[in-house]
């Protein structure tokens, strides 16, 4: 060390034992001592997270479609899902307003569909931006008595930015003031043109109240999914996206995550943005305990050290050390950078300005 400091000092560099040298300079000096310097490989966590790793076609197996239900406030998204699931989520909501993204898995004639209900748009924007591949199909719910509204347009922009298929569900057709033709007309402005008008968008008139048209809507979803030939490799480490997360008084941080690739198991170590942990317990969308989750499956997990953000990408890793290193690097590299990167890649502003 003394020799090096002296050498650098004579070359006009004031350094001490804690100084860092640029790699080029260090390797030049190393050569003078007959050493070859090797640059330490820095794991760029952010690159790693955004990287779409190549998958071998032979490992891919069909997976269920992930469908998000979007649209203007009160147009009946949750009611429509209730009708599909034959449940009553809306009645349990504060003021009937959805405040989080609910995930549910529905069985339709032996075929599975994963639905994500969406509230207003904030959580969803983050999710859309980083999870371009998180959903395959968007159901755009437009109330037949209200027509295209600001959040309808926003939802269209989100779906287009993410490059996913849009199926239009014209809801509340049971209402006297319903005007299906007007909704169709209004949507033509956004390049959503019904098939019977020479376009290629599927329009399904439905009523969440009378259940009219629901079967047809489900059929259209499955048809669309068929064409997409959705596949994933279940035999690899899990990777996916956080749908929602919160701090539970008794259970600590709980996160609802959508597994997109691989299989997530109880006992797996995971890194999720700035959080990490070991999957201690997992419940499916019906609240049942499960030990593993295949691609396209939403699960709620416990075992993270902190509450991750919605839209964050999670990855299963080999051990605790790796999980911790990734989350620590993520923190030190700055979440802002990741956000900036992603925003740059798929900026909604770009879309609006086109
Ligand atoms: P947010 O999640 O807050 O954006 O609302 P939402 O789109 O989920 O709407 P929600 O399902 O909560 O329904 C809003 C209101 O519309 C409720 O009062 C529903 O009862 C009513 N509604 C939903 N679907 C129908 C329908 O098909 N017919 C009629 N008549 N009313 C409906
Ligand atoms: Mg709702």
Automatic annotation (TrEMBL):
Keywords: Coiled coil, Cytoplasm, GTP-binding, Initiation factor, Nucleotide-binding, Protein biosynthesis
Record bears the keyword Kinase: no
Record: residues binding GTP: 71-78, 117-121, 171-174
Transmembrane segments: none
Keyword Transcription: no
Domain Tr-type G per the UniProt entry, residue ranges: 62-231
Primary subcellular site in the record, as a coarse category: cytoplasm
Residue ranges that the Swiss-Prot or TrEMBL entry lists as coiled coil: 166-193
Protein family membership: Belongs to the TRAFAC class translation factor GTPase superfamily. Classic translation factor GTPase family. IF-2 subfamily.
Function: One of the essential components for the initiation of protein synthesis. Protects formylmethionyl-tRNA from spontaneous hydrolysis and promotes its binding to the 30S ribosomal subunits. Also involved in the hydrolysis of GTP during the formation of the 70S ribosomal complex.
Protein name per the record: Translation initiation factor IF-2
Protein species of origin: Coprococcus eutactus
From-to range in the entire protein, with total length: 400 to 753 of 961
